[in-house]
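Supplementary Note 3. Input sequence used for the single-chain structure prediction.
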Amino acid sequence: MVVPLAYVLFPWISYPISCRILGQLDDFVILRYGYLVLFKMIPPMVLEESRERAKTKLGQINWKKFKRTTVILSICLVLT
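The predicted structure, written as discrete structure tokens, is reproduced below.
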């Protein structure tokens, strides 16, 4: 957890900005590492409970309304 936090606080230490691909790859690796560490810190019972609550909430979504809103927002973005 120290490495991702240090990278967020001091990003200029890792690689020079002139090397764009290494910089982006560096970002991906650090964020992925932080993601994995975070999930290992969460107790399995809490993680399972959160997943069940998310499934319940997804079942309550009005997908027809969601699709309609997505289409309207997409049209607005294309027109701007």
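The chain has a mean pLDDT of 80. The chain has two domains: 1-41, 43-80.
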